[in-house]
Amino acid sequence: MTPAGEIHIELTHRAGQVGSVKIASTRPEAAQALVGKTPEQLLSMLPLLFSLCGNAQAYAALLACRAALGLAAEPAADAARECLLRLETVREHAWRILLDWPALLGKPADKAAMVALLKLDRQFKACLFADGEAFRLDSRLQIDEPSFNGLSAELTDLIDHAIFAGGLDRFLAITDAAQLRDFVVGNTGLAAQLLNALYQRDWLALGASSVSCLPELEYAELHQHMQHADLSAFCRTPQWQGRCYEATPLSRQQAQPLIVELQSRYGTGLLVRFVAVLLEVTAVPKLVALPTRATGGGADGVGLAQVQAARGLLIHRLALRQSRVYDYRIVAPTEWNVHPDGVLAQGLKALQATDADDLRQQAEWLIQAVDPCVAYRVTLHKQ
Predict the structure, then answer these.
(1) What is the CATH number of the domain that holds 203?
(2) pTM for the full model?
């Protein structure tokens, strides 16, 4: 088991046909390490607890702290923080594409591009906040717009060459399934190679399920639910109004015309999921104040925040007593997506393989498409 825990996935099958799926998580409740801390202390500790989606985790914590303390919003600084969140989404997707997609194709990862990606990521905060401290109660906005725009251009160029082989603009112009097929045939980049493998294997609809995307959760309803729910159960195996939902990039991209058409043909299968990720990795933010997706609120020392992390909706809830954390809860997108009856489980149940080896390969592709965020193990059992 890794320190961050892992996902155990067991598939029972007969000659490659799935009979049952069992998913169990050993992910620890890291937020319990924050109990007893002051808001300032927890905001300092958070980067040590979360290496993935660190900006989203820090921003959700900051919003929850501000709400619990009754502090006013910071529109200008929050617009810059939103920019950092969108950049983090691009970075997280690009990292997984550069690391995991070549492995699916039996090829080595582009380590040079990965190193360049990390180098750029570290520089963005310094362009927006004094000392690069973006997620503190006393953070000071300090914008270096020329440097920020220069880094954004470098990031766009890196993604264009490492993932799209110079075809990023052409990919962004795609509006229907026919244009997507033409792009795949006419491009040699990593994205086109992976999509082409789906076409060749006829895996376009592989892993489709009937699990719906998580709707927008109104603050008042969520606050009331978390007041009365078994919080440990909700954080580990969340449902909303008695149903399982998925919280993935597809949840955000489902209204895009290309996604609408692909989903009408292939449901929520592999093609739709990988294209949704590619649409997000092309969205390098510009330094403008866009409408925020993050929401927070609270009363009587309780703060609740919702933030769109790279892999889906992230919820933080904290309760303060005598200026220290009395209770802290996090509902991560992973928990929605690896719910024992959730989107990954239902997608795995729908696999139609020819034998055990084919089933393992199909399962690996689907797991990567859903992206559980942490390490996982797949075990096959014959019936």
Answers:
(1) 1.10.645.10
(2) 0.94
